[in-house]
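Budget justification, computational time. The allocation requested in the original proposal was used primarily to generate structure tokens for proteins on the priority list. As evidence of use, we reproduce two of the resulting records. The first is shown immediately below.
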Amino acid sequence: MNYKETVFLPRTEFPMRGGLPKKEPEILAGWKQIDIYRKLRETRKDAELFVLHDGPPYANGQLHIGHALNKILKDVINRSQSMLGKNANYVPGWDCHGLPIEWKIEEQYRKKGKDKDEVPVKEFRQECRDFAAHWLDVQSEEFQRLGVLGDWDDPYTTMAFGAEATIAAELGRILMEGSLYRGAKPVMWSPVEKTALAEAEIEYQDHTSVTIYARFAVKTPSHPALEGANIIIWTTTPWTMPGNRAMACGADIDYSVLRITGRGEGALAKDGDVICLATELVDEVTSAI
């Protein structure tokens, strides 16, 4: 006997398989068709405003997992605030200036055998703008593919002429107020790019420094114990030794004068040498020399 028809199980319209590679684009297309972001803005136009000011990514390549994590977490925040009844108006943006974009254009020049210095500045800047605009569009599509809701039709960009004009206007206002001044400070400089570098753009090379012990003879001793003695110093920058002009002693530091005896072959110090050094460093230094 077949009992299949006698078993009453819950029925659902959900498919047995997710089929997400096909389903997700359909969902996104549905959101776009009904213009869900605009509808949310209309529904929440009189509600309390919630603005997440999004630090912009560089428009210089495709997205990576860091971009995805960043935008998805921010999207979760915006959606949660919207569900709490707030007007979560999210405007995405892009940083279109800086060395990462210029460096990409220069890579293209090098492949073509071109010298950046021979390219007119106006032409170089336009190529940077075109490069940024291309990757801006690519990243926008990829962010939307992640399901991030926002005003993708009207993002902010640092290379927008309106934004650049506003910066110039504000700089002029600060100048007229007398708040603008010129100062001097050391900055990292790239001889290749011929521009200042931000701290985030600096990569330090690990280097094992050569250290040395050196001794300086006491010419005019102020104490009988220093007669014929040498003051011991230790430095990580031996190349600065020719430029040394003085040695400093600490008023609160105890010093010892030692006569070397019983040194073996290969030791830096010889029997009979008299050395002066900080008392707390006696064991460390004598074992090294």
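The second record produced under the same allocation is shown here.
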Amino acid sequence: MSFTVEKTIKTCRGKLLKLSHNSAALNCKMVLNVYIPKQFYENASVAKNKIPSIFYLSGLTCTPENCTEKGFIQIQADKYGFAVIYPDTSPRNVTFPKDCKIDPNDWALGEGAGFYLDSDTLENFQMGTYISEELPQSLASSTDLFEDKIDFLKKRSIMGHSMGGMGALNFYLNSFERNSNGYVSCSAFSPVVNPTAVSWGQNAFKLYFKDYEHEGKKLDPTLILKNKDFSDKNLNILISSGDADPFLENQLKPQNLIDVVTKKNIKGIRVNIEPGYDHSYFFVSTFIPEHCEFHAKKLGLINHLIK
């Protein structure tokens, strides 16, 4: 599958590509951004050691532009030497079935709210397949753009915010069961960690699944950790939430995940509740350096731990 380069922007010490392509999984045109770090252009030997990649999944109502313009990951990408992929949050401009009842005023459903899952009621909403399979495979095969110098399939990590944090955790945790290439590490800002227990998740699962209670449990990070054995897995997860986040108690519920991790003594998961911070990109951009250092360590780009 080929990508169309809509725009190339010189930023920091690398380049941002604004791309579009026709998605077979979603049956619509999709847009995304890719940041290529300075190492791609400076290091002649990079082909032998491909540049790792980090997939960043945005939250409700967002597009690829939100984190691209407000997250400031590019500075960290140049510092450590990784590429960043910013996908969209849902299919766009698709036709919904006549019996599909979506409140046009509900910004937590439909366009901009794909929840990174594969729906069995809305055929275009196959964001699970798109993010985990179609998009990385398409990027990897685009040697005209990336010259086979970036690893989109193996040496990669995943991170996200809010709904995207939930998606990142689900892709990471479920990859162990699928025994797929998976991700080296995962981090999340203000993630929805217990979606079956909150209205954002419940309403989404009711819309996207016939048997929403059964399918929803498969996409609930807290329940996945509670019901599956990760004792022999080498987990690399970092979660950050702000204690002034207006959604903390009624939609995000980090304490529910903390309780499961503590009770089961699950190793490799760190949850930080940061005092005074809200849900916005002011919070995300503040802790992006810490999260990027975490991923860089796990990806083998640095050899010291975060203190």
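A brief technical remark on that second record: The longest helix spans residues 281-298.
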